Amino acid sequence: MRNLLVAAFMLQTASVGGASAGATCDVPVAEWQPRETLRSKLEADGWLVRSIKAQDGCYAADVTDKNGVEIHAVFDPKTLKLVDMAEQDSAG
């Protein structure tokens, strides 16, 4: 079920072209969209945004879906397209 939710998130949020672990982005800071633009986009898609930070030249967002699944997603800061994501282990 969780895999289905993660797949739905990927389809809803952006088209993914080869997501890979340890994704990095190569976008000049002057071309980055505001963090709040990404937050608004994710919230409009029904996700609870816990945090968004710059990481390895990308935006890294920790979000929770409607079913409580915690997801760590990485976005290109210029296009806001999803470049990587993983379900977080909430078992502690």
Tell me the strand percentage band. Answer: 25-35%
> In what order do the strands lie side by side in the largest sheet?
1-2-3-4
Largest sheet: 4 strands, antiparallel
Count every beta strand, where a strand is a DSSP E run of 2 or more residues: 4
Please estimate the helix content: 10-25%
SSE series: HHEEEE
SSE-based structural type: alpha+beta
Keywords:
single chain; alpha+beta; 2 helices
Report on this model:
This protein has 92 residues and is an alpha+beta fold. The relative contact order is 0.25. A 4-stranded antiparallel β-sheet has the order 1-2-3-4, covered by helices on one side. The chain starts with a helix and ends in a 5-residue tail after the last strand.
Briefly characterize the structure.
With 92 residues, the chain is of the alpha+beta class. The protein has helices at residues 2-13, 35-44; strands at 48-55, 58-64, 70-75, 82-87. Helix content is 24%, strand content 29%.
List the helices and strands and how they pair.
Elements: H1 2-13, H2 35-44, E1 48-55, E2 58-64, E3 70-75, E4 82-87
Antiparallel strand pairs: 1-2, 2-3, 3-4
